[in-house]
Amino acid sequence: MALRPFGIKFLGIDDNDNRAAAAAFLNLYKVPYYNVYDPSGELLALYNVPFIPYFVFISPKGYIVGRYAGAIGAKRMIGYLRKLGAIKNGVEIKYAY
User: Within 13 Å of residue 10, how many CA atoms lie on the same side as its CB?
Assistant: First the structure.
């Protein structure tokens, strides 16, 4: 993943699939980031995620420092991370899809 050298981490949250279907998808597409299963939507509610895809940018100290609604390509993601100062500060990204 292109952002790995910057210390950026992604976390996918699956609130819609059954576990077997989600695992098959992750294996088929070799998804390179951690994913958690959240069928109750509790984690999405905790981060106030209104819909998916939706990004919540969280600092290493646990503060929400930004949000992005909708799909985002790599070039735009890098630009947004630079705007947040995350490229040099190592902001962790939580991604809900």
Answer: 19
The residues near 48 (Cβ < 8 Å, ≥ 6 apart) are 56
pLDDT digits (tens, 9 = 90+) for 49-84: 999 889 998 888 888 888 999 998 888 888 888 888
Q: Which domain holds residue 89?
A: 7-96
Dist. CA 26–CA 28, nearest whole Å? 6
**Nearest Cα to Cα of residue 47 among 87, 22, 11:** 11
Looking at residue 44, what is its pLDDT? 92
Higher per-residue confidence, 79 vs 86: 79
Q: For the domain that residue 63 is a member of, what is the CATH number?
A: 3.40.30.10
| The residue to which tokens 């895809």 are assigned | 53
